């Protein structure tokens, strides 16, 4: 996954925050998803507009105690999951 590709929220989702976590509904699938604290942090950044993986990594590393390698792996898994569930897409 290239770090310069921008990703954005799809039009088939709606979300809200509850107790520090995000709950997301995919209208197309009729499925609900939840994100933990770091996932919610990333989701909140996506709500500001299209973002690159590099920018997301920079923001997560500045806000959480995580190694570069773990951050990269976790972000890759999160972004892949969000794409597979139709919640984000390439901008």
Structural class: alpha+beta
Give Rg in angstroms.
Answer: 12 Å
- Topology as H/E string? EEEEHEHHE
**Arrangement of strands in the largest sheet:** 5-1-6
- Provide the helix percentage: 40-55%
Outline, from the CA principal axes? Answer: globular
How would you describe this protein?
- The protein has one domain.
- The chain is built from three helices and six strands; from the N terminus they run ββββαβααβ.
- The chain has helices at residues 37-46, 53-63, 68-84; strands spanning 6-9, 13-18, 21-26, 31-35, 51-52, 88-90.
- The strands form two sheets. It has a three-stranded antiparallel sheet with strand order 5-1-6. The protein has a three-stranded antiparallel sheet with strand order 2-3-4.
- It is globular.
List keywords for this structure.
91 residues, alpha+beta, three-stranded antiparallel β-sheet, 3 helices, 42% helix
Indicate the topology.
Blueprint: E1 6-9, E2 13-18, E3 21-26, E4 31-35, H1 37-46, E5 51-52, H2 53-63, H3 68-84, E6 88-90
Antiparallel strand pairs: 1-5, 1-6, 2-3, 3-4
Concise description?
The protein is of the alpha+beta class and 91 residues long. It has helices at residues 37-46, 53-63, 68-84, and strands spanning 6-9, 13-18, 21-26, 31-35, 51-52, 88-90. It has three helices and six strands.
């Amino acid at each position: 996954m290239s770090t310069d590709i921008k990703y954005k929220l799809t039009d088939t989702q709606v979300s809200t925050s509850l107790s520090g976590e995000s709950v997301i509904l995919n209208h197309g699938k009729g499925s609900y998803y939840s994100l933990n604290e770091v996932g919610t942090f990333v989701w909140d950044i996506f709500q500001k507009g299209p973002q690159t993986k590099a920018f997301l990594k920079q923001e997560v590393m500045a806000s959480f105690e995580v190694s570069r390698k773990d951050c990269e792996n976790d972000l890759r898994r999160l972004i892949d999951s969000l794409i597979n569930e139709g919640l984000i897409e390439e901008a």
